[in-house]
Amino acid sequence: MSEQDTAEVIVVTGAGSGMGRDIAIDQARLGRHVVLVGRRLDPLQETAAAIASGSSTVVAADVSMRSGAEQLRTVLAGRPVTGFVAVAGGQGDFKDYDGDLQQAEDAWEQALRKNLYSALLPIEALLPQMVDRAGRIVLIGSTAALDGRGGPYATAKAAMAGYGRDLAVRAGSRGITTNTITPGFVGGTEFFTAGGYGESTAMVDRAAAQTLVGRVGAPADISAAVRWLLGVDAGWVTGQTVIVSGGTDMTR
């Protein structure tokens, strides 16, 4: 049996950029086999190349759709999964729908699909093969869920935390933990550019001023929190929302 076959398997969605990419690389450094999941093949291959001597599998699939989650399950073919980190997501437009119910329905459905279903569907697909007594699930939420700012995105992220608590109850009997990390403003990602907004210097400065430590977050800050929650030292932590925001939640 090869080293790849015996290594712990960690699935990371949204692994092509930003926090997902950093988390995947960090987990590979720990000797784990990382399954890199995302909609775009090229960024996933770039992450795999950055892992270099580490072990990874690329799965280009839209796991916010049932077909994508089923594709991921087929690729893993019943292989035991130790960890799952749900990073995939993104914001939509911030707008006043002015009574246009079609626009409102479309925006909220898109936000839930992108930010909740992208975690729910692949996790439910792989839950039967998560390792008993050692399985770890980490969901990536947002501080937008705490204060309601962010339109449909904020509500979708709040739903993510609720799903995490439900999952903690259901999977807890198997010794599998589930926790949600709630980041504040994290720079150096595609979050704002993908949503059609630029990450300007002024935006970063304003976000830094809202923290207690005078700086915005970096992907490595989130990777460190994920590393802890995936590790043996966090085996008695489950059903929790861990805020990693530089204290932003205390200043709002």
List keywords for this structure.
252 residues, single chain, 11 helices, alpha/beta, Rossmann fold, 47% helix, seven-stranded parallel beta sheet
Topology as a string of helices (H) and strands (E)? HEHEHEHEHEHHEHHHEH
Shape: globular
The amount of beta strand, in percent, is 5-15%
- Runs in which pLDDT lies below 50 for 5 or more consecutive residues are none
How is the largest sheet built, in terms of strand order? Answer: 3-2-1-4-5-6-7
- CATH class equals Alpha Beta
What is the total number of structural domains? 1
* CATH homologous superfamily caption: NAD(P)-binding Rossmann-like Domain
Provide the gyration radius in Å: 18 Å
According to CATH, the fold-level topology is Rossmann fold
Number of helices: 11
Q: What level of helicity do the residues show?
A: 40-55%
Using the 3D structure, state the CATH architecture.
Answer: 3-Layer(aba) Sandwich
What gap, in angstroms, lies between the N and C termini?
Answer: 53 Å
Q: Give the tally of β-strands.
A: 7
How does the major sheet shape up?
7 strands, parallel
Rounded mean pLDDT score:
90
Overall structural class, as computed from helix and strand content, comes to: alpha/beta
